[in-house]
Automatic annotation (TrEMBL):
InterPro entries: IQ_motif_EF-hand-BS (IPR000048), Kinesin_motor_dom_sf (IPR036961), Myosin_head_motor_dom-like (IPR001609), P-loop_NTPase (IPR027417)
Protein name per Swiss-Prot or TrEMBL: Myosin motor domain-containing protein
Biased composition (Basic and acidic residues): 190-212
Organism annotation: Aphanomyces euteiches
Region span, Disordered: 189-215
Length: 1193
């Protein structure tokens, strides 16, 4: 490293992860370099001098390009590395001479100027030489159009891929591309019309008008829309007017961009196959951020359409939408839950009212009349009112469930009206869940479960997101109809695709990466794979088309050793000749990201399929998903293990741009894209013409594999990648200069991060290995032709390649520093000084002609001598080959004879060895079993148990034959002995059985006699026991009846006592009421005194009655205390106490009526209700217990 560092040169030193500082090496001591900081604006060493000793072995420094100069193509930089790229972009972004566009090979890097710049004239690119045109999106569009219009046997479709982070200018760049292509197609059609009819002067006029930008419709007002519709609006103008529709319904203000596209789009511009006129266009959208509708991030806005509608100023329209709650639109916006929860409702750059006017004009232009616009805006307003529907908790039989509170009723009614739905059905869809059984005996049975507040809120948001998605899809379908895309001729007509898609995202550490970032980064991985294929393989194809080979033998040396002389070789010519002539295998090497793509979206077990699998499990959760991911991919190279403290809530993926942490929260919910049948029916029965005309997403069952966001998005990305790979891709990388979106500020750290995420730095690393510096042979000839003259050049037969090779040899270029193609001279990275030396001929003007002639003469002489020597060598080689072939024939015959003899000897030796081995094995077995009869016997039994013996074990039966015969004799003897013993045993058993039978008969007779006696005794006892049981049962029956009677009577007494207590309470309440009335009467006139006296007398009489009732109660208690006679108790039992007893006071004795009268003839009746008087419960119970016990016993 140190041998390449020169004292006094400028170098870049890396500071931190993304920073670079410029300095000069003032001293060098081994690996230690003294680094002095340099002012980039002046190029002088900073004062005071700031020195630092850098160990270049550990912290390498990179050479800097000359200051105060920039390159339109960064592959032309002398030194190509990250710092050089950023410095070149920064210098070209200076406000004084701002040039925001720069090429890197065939990739356009666009730095957002954050202000409106005057666009160059399109005529400077249409049909002009692109080599002389400055970098601009017009350059890329013109190149794509020319490639499309080139006559080829096979149609070559084109695509322009625009990528970058939010706020980098992707949308504006796509507008520039679309604007140029529409104008370019009209210009081309005008040229054909001029060639067909050049006599009409109006054609030239129309051609000039077609070269103007097609943004004229945005300036029209609503009052002249009718006249505009009657005119012939071109397809290009309609295409440009779809952009306001896409921006209003798909863009929103974010932290990074005031007009951020929250979806990806791919626009196809279809051209005719003959004159390449614009005949149609289509728009495909990807990954609309529906979650923003219900929960916009803090500090960001919802979709533009809501603010544009409220701030439109159209009172009649807003009145129909119930959006005029106040004269101030800000108050209206703050009143909606979906708009005020983020804390941001305004934008300093956007004009919502003006954008709404552009939107309405664009809607009319794509065929949406005022009536359909009204339906569209009703749905938009209905979503806002639906978001204001809040839920309260209520206690039901199913527990704590959700209900719509009184405050939310107006919002629900308004939302249902605007959405064209019935209020009750909409509320039911949010509050209840319908379950239909598909299996079992109650198949097709329907059940309804009430939801809690969280579930109801989720259902409300799901309905809102579904409706908004349907509205967005309906708008895309209307735009497609207006753009007249011919789907039937898709594979016949050529097209140019413009892809505007989100860039790589990593919000750590300021924010968290979630499910959306995984999808976005997967899309960028797919595009990066296409980038690798197109850019790097295109470079490889260029090398192959140029037939690049090593510039060997430029020093004019013999390729072989001369007789008596050693072979002199170059340091580069160490490979075989065939390899040195075509050594391009390692020119282009790059890191393939296919492993990361397989990790994420592999159908056989990637992250996406794992998410779907966990979602189909019973009771899915994010925790289960995270555990499954860590279990399956813990050994994957692109799935590193995070810190143990964070592993339970996140996982990591190594992308091409770096490692990204993803938090697992809400992955399952966000992946679920299944629309329930209940929501589908709700939208289907809507009266809105927009919702009815748009087909819904098919409903998938809970255990279905379809319906997930990951599956649909991966299918979309694979289809997009397949389509892009079938086209010729052109890339535009958009860069945001600073996060604050300030004009004139260039944040190097942010730009470096974006370059890494876009793969630009990796591309530079690849180009460093390749041959980035190149020059045409024609340029070299033009440079040297005035010096050498035409005569010298003609000696080379006007061969530009041979002439350039002679110059390189004359300048003594190292053979490994450059390579020769068919039309260009290629230099390796870092060899730009050789190019400077090649073009700087002032130092050798006088020697050039002579050196070139000498080289040519020596080369021709060398070629002639080489041909003669090669001929001699081939002749000698021919004779040697004939001699060697004859000797080889004799050697082959002799070797065959020797081989046959040796084979016979080996076969005989093998037979003898086999016999010896067989006998040796037999002897070993016999020796092992000698003196062991038991083991021999077990071996014999084992052999006899086998049905078939192997050939090598049959000799064992012959050897063990005597033992087998002895075993047979022993078997016969044992059988005879067993038969004799069995016979003797049977006789002995017969005698014993006969004696035992006689004893058993005698015992049987004795037992019969005893059994009869026992039977008689048991019958007598059983009859006595039955009589006793009957007596006890009767007593128990009487006892049960008595107990039931006591319980019934006790219950009646308790009831009566309760009624008496209630009557006393009512009397006391009545007395209290009368006392209050007396107080009122006392305040009356003196004429009411007589009435007061009468009432006092009545009260005294009532007290007397109360005392009489108390005395009667005491008498009843005393009577109740006396025990009843047996006859009275039996009588009460059978009559169920229906007769009147002394314990109950007669109604005639208690009921009295008092009449109060006054001068106004007002009467009031006071009645004493019948109050049954019962004795105390405890005493009564005791008495009854005593009576029952006396009666039973």
């Amino acid at each position: 490293m140190t041998d390449k560092i020169r004292v006094g040169d400028l170098y870049w030193k890396k500071v931190g992860s993304n920073g670079w500082i410029l300095g000069k090496v003032s001293a060098l001591d081994g690996d230690n370099a003294t680094f002095e900081l340099v002012d980039e604006e002046s190029g002088d060493v900073m004062q005071p001098v700031q020195q630092e000793v850098v160990d270049v072995a550990l912290n390498p420094i990179f050479p800097a390009n000359p200051l105060f100069s920039t390159c339109a193509d960064m592959t032309s930089l002398h030194h190509l590395h990250e710092a050089a790229l950023v410095k070149n972009l920064q210098d070209r972004s200076v406000l004084s001479n701002q040039r925001p566009y720069t090429f890197m090979a065939n990739v356009l890097i666009a730095v957002n100027p954050l202000r409106y710049l005057e666009e160059p004239d399109k005529k400077g690119y249409i049909g002009q030489s692109l080599d002389k045109c400055p970098p601009h999106p017009y350059h890329v569009a013109e190149s794509a159009y020319r490639q499309l219009a080139t006559v080829r046997p096979v149609m070559q479709n084109q695509s322009i891929i625009i990528s970058g982070e939010s706020g980098s200018g992707k949308t504006e760049t796509s507008k520039i591309i679309l604007d140029f292509l529409t104008v370019r197609a009209m210009a081309n059609s005008s040229e054909h019309r001029d060639s067909m009819d050049s006599e009409e002067p109006e054609v030239t006029h129309n051609k000039k008008e077609s070269l103007r930008p097609s943004r004229v419709l945005s300036s029209f007002s609503s009052r002249n829309i009718t006249s505009m519709l009657t005119s012939n609006v071109t397809l290009g103008e309609r295409l440009m007017e779809t952009i306001p529709i896409l921006e209003s319904f798909g863009n929103a203000k974010t932290h990074r961009n005031h007009n951020s596209s929250r979806f990806g789009k791919y626009m196809r511009l279809q051209f005719s196959s003959r004159h390449h006129e614009l005949t149609g266009a289509s728009i495909d959208t990807y990954l609309l951020e529906k979650s923003r509708l219900v929960h916009p991030p803090t500090g960001e806005r919802n979709f533009h359409i809501f603010y544009e509608l409220i701030r439109s100023g159209r009172t009649d329209l807003l009145d129909q939408m119930h959006l005029i709650a106040s004269s101030d639109p800000e108050v209206v916006i703050e009143s909606f839950h979906y708009l005020n929860r983020s804390g941001c409702t305004t934008s300093d750059i956007l004009n919502d009212a003006s954008n709404f006017d552009k939107l309405t004009d664009a809607l009319v232009l794509v065929g949406i009349d005022s009536a359909m616009q009204l339906e569209l805006f009703r749905l938009v307003a209905g979503l806002l009112h639906l978001g204001n529907v809040s839920f309260d908790e209520e206690e039901t039989d199913e527990g704590t469930t959700a209900c719509i509170g009184p405050k939310a009723e107006p919002s629900l009614e308004t939302a249902a009206s605007l959405l064209g739905m019935q209020k009750d059905i909409l509320a039911s869809a949010m509050l209840t869940k319908r379950i239909t059984r598909s299996q079992g005996g109650r198949r097709n049975s329907i059940y309804y479960l009430k939801k809690d507040v969280r579930q109801a809120t989720y259902s409300r948001d799901t309905i809102a997101k579904t409706i908004y998605e349907q509205v967005f899809g309906w708008l895309m379908r209307k735009c497609a109809q207006a753009l007249e895309y011919n789907e039937a001729l898709r594979d016949v007509l050529p097209y140019i695709g413009v892809l505007d898609i989100f860039g790589f995202e990593d919000f750590e550490p300021r924010n968290r990466n979630s499910f959306e970032q995984l999808l976005i980064n997967y899309a960028n991985e797919t595009l990066q794979s296409i980038f690798n294929t197109c850019i790097f393989q295109a470079e490889q194809e260029l090398y192959m088309s140029e037939h690049i080979h090593m510039a060997n033998n430029v020093s004019l040396q013999f390729p072989f050793a001369l007789p008596g002389q050693p072979l002199v070789t170059n340091t580069s010519d160490v490979k075989p000749l065939s390899e040195r002539l075509n050594d391009t295998s390692e020119l282009i090497t790059y890191v393939d990201n296919q492993e990361c793509l397989n990790l994420i979206a592999s159908r056989s077990g990637g992250i996406f399929s794992t998410i779907d699998a966990v979602s189909r499990l019973p009771g899915p959760s994010d925790k289960k998903l995270n555990e499954r991911l860590h279990t399956l991919f813990k050994r994957h190279a692109c799935f590193p293990t995070p810190h143990p403290k964070e592993a339970h809530e996140m996982f990591c993926v190594v992308h091409y741009a770096g490692q990204v942490k993803y938090h697992i929260e809400s992955f399952i919910d966000k992946n679920n894209n299944i629309i329930s049948a209940q929501f589908e029916e709700l939208i289907h029965i809507s009266k809105s013409a927009v919702l009815k005309s748009q087909p819904l997403v098919s409903v998938a069952p809970a255990n279905s594999k379809g319906g997930s966001v990951t599956q649909m998005f991966s299918v979309q990305m694979r289809g997009l990648a397949s389509e892009l790979e079938g086209t010729r891709c052109n890339f535009i990388r958009c860069i945001k200069p600073n996060a604050a979106m300030e004009v004139g500020v260039f944040d190097r750290a942010s730009v470096v991060d974006q370059l890494r995420c876009s793969g630009t730095v990796q591309a530079c690393s690849v180009l460093k290995v390749g041959l980035p510096t190149r020059i045409l042979y024609a340029e070299v000839v033009d440079t040297y032709l005035p010096l050498v003259g035409q005569e010298v050049y003609e000696k080379f037969n006007c061969n530009e390649r041979l002439f350039t090779q002679a110059i390189c040899a004359a300048l003594q270029f190292p053979p490994d520093a450059y390579r020769l193609g068919d039309t260009r001279l290629f230099f390796r990275t870092g060899k730009i000084d050789l190019l400077d030396k090649l073009l700087n001929v002032s130092s050798m003007e006088a020697q050039v002609p002579k050196t070139l002639v000498n080289y040519l003469v020596k080369r021709r002489w060398l070629n002639a001598v080489t041909k003669v020597m090669v001929y001699k060598m081939w002749e000698k080689l021919f004779h040697e080959c004939r001699f060697r072939r004859s000797a080889l024939t004799i050697q082959c015959w002799w070797r065959q004879y020797r081989a046959r003899q040796e084979l016979k000897s080996l076969k005989s030796q093998a037979r003898i060895a086999a016999i010896l081995a067989k006998w040796s094995k037999k002897l070993q077995v016999m020796k092992a079993f000698s003196g062991k009869p038991e083991e021999k016997l077990s071996l014999l039994n084992g052999l006899l148990s086998k049905s078939v013996l192997p050939r090598g074990q049959k000799w064992l039966l012959t050897w063990l034959g005597p033992l087998q015969r002895a075993m047979y004799v022993q078997k016969l003897c044992r059988k005879a002995c067993v038969a004799f013993m069995v016979k003797q045993g049977f006789l002995w058993l017969y005698k014993n059985v006969k004696a035992k039978r006689a004893q058993l008969l005698l015992q049987t007779q004795v037992r019969i006699v005893l059994a009869k006696r026992r039977l008689k005794e048991l019958v007598r006892k059983r009859r006595a026991r039955d009589n006793w049981r009957k007596a006890i049962f009767g007593a128990r029956v009487i006892s049960v009846f008595v107990r039931q009677f006591n319980r019934v009577h006790l219950h009646r007494l308790e009831t009566c006592q309760g009624e008496l207590i209630a009557a006393n309470e009512s009397l006391k309440a009545r007395v209290t009421e009368l006392t209050e009335r007396l107080k009122i009467v006392e305040a009356e006139k003196v004429s009411l005194a007589s009435i007061v006296a009468t009432n006092t007398a009545l009260l005294a009489e009532r007290e007397t009655q109360l005392r009489m009732l108390e005395s009667q109660m005491d008498m009843a208690k005393s009577k109740a205390a006396q025990p009843d006679s047996l006859f009275l108790r039996i009588f009460k039992f059978f009559t169920c106490s229906s007769t009147k007893t002394d314990g109950i006071v007669d109604e005639s004795e208690v009921s009295r009526t008092a009449v109060l009268s006054d001068e106004s003839s007002c009467r009031e009746e006071i009645s004493v209700q019948r109050v049954p008087i019962t004795p105390p419960k405890k005493k009564l119970r005791n008495n009854h217990v005593w009576k029952v016990s006396r009666f039973c016993f």
